[in-house]
C-alpha cells in the first residue's frame, strides 16, 4: 500500500514541477490530473486535493480524508493527461513527461519553451470530475451510486392562512448543491429557499404528508448547471484592403462538460481595413480568465486598378461634367469596368464600346466604402482597371446625387411605443433631388432596441447618399415601461363578509416578502406589504434590517403588529402585514441583491430575496397600475 502511495506522490510531484520548475518563469500550472479506468472512461482529480488525500492515506488509509485517494487507486488504469490552469488546456502525459525531464534536468529553457508552444501542447478531453465532500465521493457534483431524490422524511405540510391550499416543504438528498436541480410536485414547480435549504410548493386543497408518494416528486438537474468555459480558440481572418469587416460579437466556447456554446465577446478596439498589414485584437468573455486573440490580415487590392478623380461643379449642385477625357491603351476589347461614384445612388458600371470610344454608364447596385471624400471638396472617384479613355455621361432620370429636401417632416421623427414592442422605423421616404425629381429612398437606420424603457435617439442614413447633416434623419423614440400582467401568477380571494377582493401572488404563502391589493365594493383599491418568516426556529422579531444593493434601511414595527403562529411538525410563522412603503418596495423589486435580517433580542435570521419574489412584486405593481387605468 505504501509503495503505491509513494508512486502516486512521485507522479504528483512531477505534476508539481509544471507549476514550480526551479529558477524559471512559470508559463503553466497543472491543477488537475486525468486518469483512464479499465472501461476507458476519463476521470479528473484536483491536484492539491489528491495530494493531501494521499498524504493522509499514508498514515491512515481508513480515514475519511483518504477516500479521495482510495477512489483514485480503484479507478486508475493509466494516467491520461494534466490540466493546465493557465492556458486552459489538457496536456497528455506522454508529451509532458519528456518536457518535464528536459526542463528540470537537461535544460531549464526547454520546458518553458514547450509550455509556450501552443502548436504542440493541447489535446481535447471529455472528463467526469471527482471530488470529495465530508468523505462522500461525488462525480460531477452527484454522490456516487445514488440518484438525486426527495428526502421523504423531511416533508412537512401546513395550512398557514387557509384550508383551500397546502404548503409542502421538503429537502433533497444525494446532491451536493440543491440549487442545481428543479423539482416538480404533482406538476407544480417547487421554489428553493437557500436560507433554509428547503424546497416549497403550494398545492390546491388540504393535503397531509401521508397523501404524498415519492412518485409525486420529479427531480431533474438544470441543464448547464456548474458548467464553466474550458477553452476558446483564437481566430484568424483575412480580408482585402478597403473591405467592410466587423469583429464577431459571439464566439464558440468549449464548456467544462464538453458541450459547445456560443458566448458573447467584447474587443479592445475596432477593425479598420484601410491600411494593409497584420493587426491583433484582444477579446474578453465573461467567466473566462484568458483573452481571445483575433488576428486580422489585410491584403492589398489589385495594384493595377487606376483611380481618376472627377470634380463636381459645386457642393450643392451635384452634377458631373458631361465629358471627361482619359487616355486609352490600344487594342481594348468591349468589356465592363468597375466605376464607383461616391454620393450617387448605389454604384455604376461603365461599358466601353471600342468603335465609339466611349463609356456609357449602367446601373449596378453595390456601393463602395473606400472612395475619396472631403467635406469642403466633394469628389467622385472613377476606378477603371488598367485602362484610360474618354468617358461620356448620358444622364437619365436615374442619374442623381444631391438631395434638395426631405418630404413630410421626416427628417426629425418623434414616436412613443411600449417596451418590447416590435417597431420598424419608416423606410422608404420621399425626397426631392437637386434636379427637382422626387424619389422614394430607403433608409438605413441604427439598430432599434425596445427591451428597455426610456428616451433614445437613433439616426438614419439615406441609402446610397453621403451622410451630410442635411441628409441625416433623426428618430427620438420614447419607450414606455412594460406593464404586462401575468394573471396566472395572481391568486384572487373574496371576503364575502366585508365584500373585499384580495389580489396576491400565487406563491404568497412561501414568500419572505410580498405585496397584495385590496379592492372594496366602491372600487377603492390599496396596496399592502408583508414580511414573513417561516421556519423550524423560533424568533421574536424586534426590527427588520434591509440591505438593498449595499444601502441599509431599517423598520421597527410595533411588536403587537407581528402575528405569530405555531403549527404541528415544528413550523413557526411570523407575519408583519403593514401599509406599503412604495419607494422601498420598488427598490427591492429592481435591485440586484436584497438581504433582509429579522433582528431579535439575542438572535437573528437572514434571507436573500429571490428573483421570483421580485418578479411577484413587479407583477402585483403592474396589476395595481392596470386597475388604476394607468
UniProtKB/TrEMBL annotation:
<keyword id="KW-0732">Signal</keyword>
<dbReference type="Pfam" id="PF07532">
    <property type="entry name" value="Big_4"/>
</dbReference>
<feature type="domain" description="Bacterial Ig-like">
    <location>
        <begin position="232"/>
        <end position="288"/>
    </location>
</feature>
<protein>
    <submittedName>
        <fullName>Ig domain protein</fullName>
    </submittedName>
</protein>
<feature type="domain" description="Bacterial Ig-like">
    <location>
        <begin position="413"/>
        <end position="464"/>
    </location>
</feature>
<dbReference type="InterPro" id="IPR011081">
    <property type="entry name" value="Big_4"/>
</dbReference>
<feature type="signal peptide">
    <location>
        <begin position="1"/>
        <end position="24"/>
    </location>
</feature>
Amino acid at each position: 500500500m505504501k509503495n503505491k502511495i509513494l508512486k502516486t506522490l512521485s507522479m504528483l510531484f512531477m505534476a508539481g514541477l509544471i507549476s514550480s520548475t526551479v529558477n524559471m518563469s512559470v508559463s503553466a500550472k497543472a491543477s488537475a490530473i486525468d486518469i483512464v479506468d479499465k472501461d476507458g472512461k476519463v476521470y479528473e482529480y484536483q491536484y492539491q486535493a489528491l495530494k493531501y488525500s494521499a498524504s493522509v492515506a499514508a498514515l491512515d488509509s481508513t480515514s475519511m480524508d483518504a477516500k479521495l485517494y482510495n477512489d483514485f487507486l480503484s479507478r486508475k488504469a493509466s494516467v491520461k493527461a494534466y490540466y493546465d490552469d493557465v492556458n486552459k488546456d489538457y496536456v497528455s502525459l506522454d508529451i509532458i513527461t519528456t518536457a518535464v525531464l528536459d526542463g528540470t534536468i537537461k535544460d531549464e529553457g526547454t520546458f518553458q519553451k514547450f509550455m509556450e508552444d501552443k502548436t504542440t501542447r493541447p489535446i481535447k478531453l471529455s472528463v467526469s470530475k471527482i471530488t470529495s465532500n465530508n468523505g462522500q465521493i461525488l462525480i460531477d457534483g452527484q454522490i456516487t451510486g445514488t440518484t438525486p431524490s426527495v428526502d421523504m422524511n423531511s416533508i412537512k405540510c401546513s395550512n398557514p392562512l387557509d384550508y383551500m391550499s397546502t404548503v409542502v416543504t421538503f429537502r433533497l438528498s444525494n446532491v451536493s448543491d440543491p440549487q442545481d436541480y428543479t423539482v416538480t410536485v404533482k406538476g407544480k414547480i417547487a421554489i428553493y429557499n437557500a436560507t433554509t435549504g428547503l424546497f416549497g410548493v403550494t398545492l390546491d386543497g388540504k393535503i397531509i404528508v401521508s397523501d404524498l408518494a415519492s412518485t409525486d416528486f420529479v427531480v431533474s438537474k438544470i441543464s448547464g448547471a456548474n458548467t464553466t468555459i474550458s477553452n476558446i480558440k483564437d481566430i484568424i481572418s483575412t480580408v482585402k484592403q478597403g473591405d467592410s469587416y466587423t469583429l464577431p460579437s459571439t464566439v464558440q466556447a468549449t464548456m467544462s462538460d464538453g458541450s459547445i456554446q456560443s458566448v458573447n465577446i467584447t474587443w479592445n478596439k475596432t477593425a479598420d481595413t484601410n491600411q494593409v498589414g497584420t493587426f491583433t485584437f484582444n477579446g474578453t468573455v465573461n467567466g473566462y480568465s484568458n483573452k481571445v486573440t483575433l488576428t486580422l490580415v489585410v491584403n492589398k487590392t489589385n495594384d493595377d486598378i487606376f483611380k481618376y478623380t472627377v470634380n463636381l461643379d459645386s457642393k450643392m449642385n451635384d452634377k458631373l461634367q458631361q465629358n471627361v477625357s482619359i487616355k486609352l491603351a490600344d487594342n481594348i476589347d468591349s468589356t465592363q469596368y468597375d466605376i464607383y461614384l461616391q454620393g450617387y445612388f448605389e454604384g455604376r458600371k461603365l461599358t466601353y464600346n471600342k468603335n465609339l470610344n466611349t463609356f456609357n454608364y449602367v446601373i449596378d447596385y453595390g456601393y463602395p466604402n473606400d472612395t475619396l471624400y472631403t467635406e469642403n471638396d466633394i469628389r467622385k472617384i472613377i476606378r477603371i482597371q488598367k485602362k484610360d479613355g474618354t468617358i461620356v455621361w448620358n444622364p437619365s432620370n436615374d442619374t442623381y446625387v444631391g438631395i434638395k429636401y426631405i418630404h413630410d417632416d421626416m427628417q426629425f421623427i418623434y414616436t412613443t411605443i411600449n417596451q418590447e414592442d416590435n417597431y420598424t422605423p419608416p423606410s422608404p421616404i420621399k425626397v426631392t433631388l437637386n434636379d427637382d425629381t422626387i424619389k422614394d429612398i430607403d433608409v438605413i437606420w441604427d439598430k432599434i432596441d425596445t427591451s428597455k424603457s426610456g428616451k433614445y435617439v437613433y439616426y438614419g442614413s439615406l441609402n446610397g447618399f453621403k451622410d451630410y447633416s442635411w441628409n441625416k434623419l433623426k428618430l427620438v423614440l420614447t419607450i414606455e415601461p412594460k406593464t404586462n400582467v401575468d394573471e396566472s401568477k395572481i391568486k384572487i380571494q373574496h371576503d364575502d363578509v366585508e365584500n373585499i377582493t384580495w389580489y396576491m401572488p400565487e406563491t404568497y404563502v412561501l414568500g419572505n416578502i410580498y405585496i397584495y391589493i385590496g379592492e372594496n365594493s366602491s372600487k377603492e383599491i390599496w396596496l399592502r406589504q408583508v414580511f414573513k418568516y417561516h421556519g423550524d426556529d423560533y424568533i421574536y422579531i424586534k426590527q427588520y434590517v434591509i440591505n438593498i444593493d449595499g444601502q441599509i434601511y431599517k423598520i421597527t414595527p410595533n411588536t403587537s403588529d407581528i402575528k405569530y403562529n405555531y403549527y404541528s411538525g415544528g413550523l413557526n410563522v411570523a407575519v408583519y402585514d403593514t401599509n406599503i412603503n412604495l419607494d422601498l418596495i420598488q427598490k427591492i423589486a429592481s435591485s440586484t441583491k436584497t438581504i433582509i435580517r429579522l433582528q431579535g433580542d439575542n438572535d437573528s435570521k437572514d434571507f436573500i430575496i429571490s428573483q421570483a419574489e421580485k418578479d411577484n412584486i413587479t407583477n402585483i405593481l403592474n396589476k395595481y397600475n392596470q386597475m388604476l387605468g394607468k
